[in-house]
Amino acid sequence: MEFKDDSLALHTDAYQINMTETYWHDHMHNRKAVFELYFRKLPFGNGYGMFAGLERIIEYVKGFRFSDSDIEYLRDSIGYEEDFLQYLKSLTFTGTIRSMREGELVFGNEPILQVESTLAEAQLLETALLNIVNYQTLIATKASRIKQVIGKEKALEFGSRRAQEMDAAIWGTRAAFIAGFDSTSNVRAGKKFGIPVSGTHAHSMIQVYKSDYLAMKKYAESCVRRKNKVFIPLVDTYDVLRSGVPAAIKVAKEFKGKVEFLGVRLDGGDMAYLSKETRKMLDQAGFQQTQIVASSDLDEQTILSLKAQGAQIDVWGIGTKLITAFDQPALGAVYKIVAIENEEGEMVDTIKISSNPEKVTTPGMKKVYRIINTLNQKSEGDYITLEDEEPQKEEQLKMFHPTHTFISKYVSNFEARELLTNVFVDGELVYKNPDIFAIQQFALENLNVLWEEYQRTLNPEEYPVDLSQKCWDNKMDIIHEIKAELKTK
Ligand SMILES: Nc1ncnc2c1ncn2[C@@H]1O[C@H](COP(=O)(O)OP(=O)(O)OP(=O)(O)O)[C@@H](O)[C@H]1O
Ligand SMILES: O=P(O)(O)OC[C@H]1O[C@H](OP(=O)(O)OP(=O)(O)O)[C@H](O)[C@@H]1O
Ligand SMILES: O=C(O)c1cccnc1
């Protein structure tokens, strides 16, 4: 039997539905629960992460509903009982989601997103939420890292052909734009998100005409007919300095005033040497404004090296190594329950103990604050509290390392900026995601509060993510309680 692929509700792991069935049978499914989504370790050895994914989460949660064909499929395949299937059919998301905003700086072991809803709903959302955040935040972080090295020069996203499938190309390029990239080569992403689109041409076009000059001339003729008139020929198909660049210059002179000779693209060879020689040739021909675009397996390391060699590159086209998060393919974010309603209707904090201290969860519904020193507008670190705390009302905050507690400092003159914002409240969407340019602007401004020591790509300082005393005490009390209980067994 064939089933229509008409909803995303089954974009989940089977165990989520199995657990939901258990809760439903046991009349636990409508208990209130709180889950928090976070990663433990920053990727790529970077000093900060950049959050992306909320746009798609909003789309997903708004549309969360099991379709008729979903129910038919579950009946036909796993064969859940009919009453449970009818319960699934009736579900929509009725809870509350708080999230960081896209472009926010995020760090290890702090909630990026929080779901407070019925146990069943929170559980059923897990896989998709992690799927979205793990990829988009990873790519935004990689893109921001690459942008750190590129600085003010332009960064073009070229990855679609190498991305892990179509969704990754589209949402990955959006994440890269959030982190400060200037354009995408993916035209659909341009249409869908309003990201500026740019493009040159491939080696194949030169090969088709068997001549740099002839191909570039034909290309220029079509550029003339376009509104933007942009002419950026690729110069390395046969020989950059003997054929590609001279042909580009010749055609540009012939079409002076009719096309905009914005740049030439180099895609390989020794790009330090070739870019310097190309620069000289363009300058001598009077094209001082024409830029040099480079592409070919670039990432932050090759870009840094090319810059150190004095490469004359103005624009960087980056594909594979960005869109596939080449050096670290997973962020490793997790989604953990931190509180559950008991039989008396009270919320009870819950913990997961592990022999690995980093994997012990922090119980209780929490708030995350960025502590900004008002004297220099730089961040002192992030501060995680239980939900009823109000750090802004304190004269002085004690910030201490959550594992090495002797590492501590007192901060006065601070603004405690709350980072989680209401996105859904009781099932209603209450947040409007800003447009993509505003999100990019927000992301770039966020970096201003971070000392440079956290922004360098190599061995950055570790940014403090601390627990409030109350949050830390709560965790320790719960650990001791559980240990005591285990002892008596
Ligand atoms: N001067 C340079 N210093 C450091 N890395 C460079 C320099 N020039 C190019 N690179 C990088 O070296 C790699 C070149 O690899 P390779 O020789 O396989 O490709 P290529 O020269 O582009 O060849 P092709 O065009 O046939 O693919 C690319 O990752 C490129 O970004
Ligand atoms: O190297 P990346 O960072 O992934 O950037 C994208 C690459 O895609 C194109 O090469 P490809 O060989 O696919 O096509 P081409 O024939 O146009 O060179 C382009 O020339 C870049 O080298
Ligand atoms: O426009 C380009 O130059 C481009 C686009 C995708 C991949 N490589 C290059």
TrEMBL record:
Its GO CC terms are:
cytosol
Q: Which residues form the signal peptide?
A: none
Q: Which UniProt keywords apply?
A: Glycosyltransferase, Ligase, Phosphoprotein, Pyridine nucleotide biosynthesis, Transferase
UniProt pathway annotation: Cofactor biosynthesis; NAD(+) biosynthesis; nicotinate D-ribonucleotide from nicotinate: step 1/1
Question: What is the enzyme's class at the highest EC level?
Answer: ligase
State the post-translational modifications: Transiently phosphorylated on a His residue during the reaction cycle. Phosphorylation strongly increases the affinity for substrates and increases the rate of nicotinate D-ribonucleotide production. Dephosphorylation regenerates the low-affinity form of the enzyme, leading to product release.
Question: Where exactly are the transmembrane stretches of this chain?
Answer: none
Protein's UniProt keywords contain Glycosyltransferase: yes
Source organism's superkingdom?
Bacteria
The record places domain Nicotinate phosphoribosyltransferase C-terminal at: 366-474
Which Enzyme Commission number(s) are on file for it?
6.3.4.21
Q: Name one GO molecular function term.
A: nicotinate phosphoribosyltransferase activity
Name the Gene Ontology biological process terms: NAD+ biosynthetic process via the salvage pathway
According to the entry, every stretch annotated as the Nicotinate/nicotinamide phosphoribosyltransferase domain falls at 156-359
Q: Where is the Nicotinate phosphoribosyltransferase N-terminal domain?
A: 10-134
Catalyzed reactions per annotation: 5-phospho-alpha-D-ribose 1-diphosphate + nicotinate + ATP + H2O = nicotinate beta-D-ribonucleotide + ADP + phosphate + diphosphate
- List, alphabetically, the SUPFAM superfamilies matched: Nicotinate/Quinolinate PRTase C-terminal domain-like (SSF51690), Nicotinate/Quinolinate PRTase N-terminal domain-like (SSF54675)
Role of this protein = Catalyzes the first step in the biosynthesis of NAD from nicotinic acid, the ATP-dependent synthesis of beta-nicotinate D-ribonucleotide from nicotinate and 5-phospho-D-ribose 1-phosphate.
Family classification? Belongs to the NAPRTase family.
Q: Please identify the protein, giving its name as recorded.
A: Nicotinate phosphoribosyltransferase
Which organism is this protein's natural source?
A: Halalkalibacter krulwichiae
Source lineage: Bacteria, Bacillati, Bacillota, Bacilli, Bacillales
